[in-house]
Amino acid sequence: MSEKIAFLGLGNLGTPIAESLINAGYELTVWNRTASKAEPLTKLGAKVVENAIDAIETGGIVISVLADDAVVEEIFSMELVEKLGKGGIHISMSTISPETSRQLSQIHDWYGATYIAAPIFARPEAVVAGVGNIAISGKAAAKEIVKPILQGFVKGIYDFGEDPGAANVVKLAGNFMIAASLEMMGEAFTMAEKNGISRQSIYEMLTQTLFAAPIFQNYGKLVANNVYEPVAFKLALGLKDINLTLQTASDANVPMPMADLIRNRFISALAKKRDNLDWSALAQGASDDAGA
Prior knowledge:
Blueprint: E1 4-8, H1 14-23, E2 27-31, H2 39-42, E3 47-48, E4 61-64, H3 69-75, H4 78-84, E5 89-92, H5 98-110, E6 114-117, E7 120-121, H6 124-129, E8 132-136, H7 140-150, E9 154-159, H8 166-193, H9 199-207, H10 214-225, H11 235-251, H12 257-271, H13 284-290
Parallel strand pairs: 1-2, 1-4, 2-3, 4-5, 5-6, 8-9
Antiparallel strand pairs: 7-8
């Protein structure tokens, strides 16, 4: 398999992933809607193109890290997938609907290409440190080809079978659990604060004992300090993900009352003009309610 990769999408996650691939020796042709974001990669040797389709090589590999379903469907037009063509592999790392992945997989099949869902659990600093994790699903032969590429910038790859939507179900479930943990910490830390206990002290005790896990330790620091900048993942994207979670649950007749609460936290935060904050700012809703 070629060491050349087309890379589409240079946001907060896409850029460090692309840098990691270049550092691992891959030759990247990159595209981003805002072209200026590609400038740091050109200094590392990446080739920049003006149109996404120009990055594609027939029979090659393309990685996409795009914002949402609409953007993925727009970029991966019939024309682009046809150019990717027979033997081509698309590694989609976006957090999108499982049904969108299934539809995209079918379109790729029509042209002899293969679609692999590979959403990543990682904030930008985790990508740089190589400690993120990926859920992957799709055709077995293509997964074996792409796993060595992905192993260069993550700690673990977890295979969820051949259903191209399966990995997206896992990603939505995981993001829901992170958001629910943010709400839980927001409520607990605020309750402690209103009873004369510092947010920092309860954070330190609980994240070294009962809740000694990365989500509580890393996000908990933000919640304890009530500081939700710099932005690694926008509040609006958090709302997008929880809406996808609720739709996926509804399609399977699964009630998720906690997800409904989280959705309302995101909507409230955006209504309060907090769209310039990280998605973890949903935890601030508990402080708002308590007048803290």
